[in-house]
Amino acid sequence: MCMTGRVGRTGKTARGGAQSSAGDLLELVRSGRAVTRGALQQMTGLSRATVGQRLDRLFRAGWLREGAGGPVDSPLGGRPAVTLEFDGSHAVVLAADLDTRHARAAVLTLTGEILAEHSGTLVVEDGPEAVLAELGRWFARLLDQAGHRPEEVCGIGLGVPGPVDSETGQVIQPPMMTGWDGYDIRGRLSRAFTEHTGAPAVPVLVDNDANLMAYGEQRTGHPDCAAFVLVKVSTGIGAGVVVDGALYRGIDGGAGDIGHIRVGTDALCRCGSYGCLAAVASGGAV
Prior knowledge:
The chain has 7 helices and 13 strands. It has helices spanning about 20-30, 35-45, 50-60, 130-145, 185-195, 210-220, 275-280, and strands at about 1-5, 65-70, 80-85, 90-100, 100-110, 115-120, 155-160, 165, 170, 205-210, 225-235, 235-245, 245.
């Protein structure tokens, strides 16, 4: 569901002016909103020297490369401006979607192209130690299938069927993830990756699965939608909410946890309560 209307934006980056970081510049180039040095100066208000310094960091790290000459930046003429391009080939990412009884994992390029993937049975009730260790094994096999070295991985993303504290990456009182409440998912999955590949630890992002689905759908399919809601119906029911291009999480990450809204029925839900929406309308209930 989408409420139409242009997402409110100014001519500056979200952080604006002298506070615009190298990451902000990278996002401007990747989104196509500014693909020359001159355009970056205009969008951020940064000086030419500061833009150059921050671009140098991105070039050294492999995130950007120079493309063909584009339109002349100056109205006075001169040489064509060198365009800047996001380099999606210098690294890969690992991603996994964990449901209550199965999971899907993949190796992807930085532009989202799937290089190798695997799905299979993985039961969250077996607990985080066993499940995350198995994901580490899956990742190692997938990298081998994709022909990429573990050292090329720059990060791991994991979607889970429960509310997530975005600051800690921990699930908060998940109704369908017994034994996961407050568990250090980021740390354990990073260690599992290292244990099964021998590569150094990499950053791990953990979020609610419906949140990630909503964010990805809004970014790729409906970038001009100011308020976007995606509802996921599986073993449970959840929703992801995106407002002005950012996830709306609510208290303890539970803004989209609509499966446990009371709907006036005496059906027993998996969470232990009676009358939840998920007890009558989820995949398991149907």
